[in-house]
Amino acid sequence: NRSYRENFAFLKSEIEREGKANIKDVIIDRSRQIEFLSQLDAAYTGFSNVSKAVIDVSTFPRDRLLIAMNYLRRKLSPHDISIAVTSPGEYATERDDGEQWLSRGVKRIEPVIGFNGHQRPHLDCLLILQLGHEYERPKIITNSLEPDLVVILGQSKMQHNARSYGAFIENNATLLLDLQGKTKSYCEIGHHDWMASRDEIARIRCEYADTHNVFIAPNGTKEQLLGAFGAALAFPDIQIIYAEPQRYNFSASSGIGGTRIVMLSDIVGY
Q1: Max Cα-Cα span within the chain
Q2: Which partner for 223 in 63, 98, 194, 227 could form a disulfide, CB atoms 3.0-4.6 Å apart?
Q3: Cα(127)–Cα(150) distance, rounded to whole angstroms?
């Protein structure tokens, strides 16, 4: 299996070979959000007359994706920003090869720049937990934050293949049992359904805004993350927190399951 840098170099060479883009690399230490934002700004400023943007979110780390979308929406009209999402043909959690994991461990847990929210000390803590196919990071986030209430947004049966929902239930069974005492509600959302994610988070925030500080831990699909992004923009008191993994499984997915395009203007359309 190729490493991340080998995959990056291969992708870059393919784009350059086809002559379809002027490529600028922004390669930074993953531990520094502010440095990513600074280098993104420098790269963007280096281009002239930018009128449209396409963000391929398929393999984007979630914290960097949130920062990039938030940055670009301040530079361009949301009507001129497209979000491209390509699903894998298969996740590692659906295989039976001894490598059924997506990431392991947590380096740090921190709020995402631009989504720090507004915490009022006299209020309780409500964690909206978007669950995907791994349980370790959500468990560590929950143990670290120690929320008074948890609302879980899980994966519905509307998945990219028949095995995916079963893998979700199996991988999260222990976590769901552990959180049973704190879980206020549980609902399932389709893996493509950014709109349902956005609207459900907005509804939860409005219900608890007077009694709880609201935090989101986005561990679901990338399109569900887009919903969290839209809700956090609409309600700036929400804080988005991210747990940086210790290790990634670079064989976490394989194949291509289809590509969808979402306009940023639809996501922020409150």
Answers
A1: 58
A2: 194
A3: 5
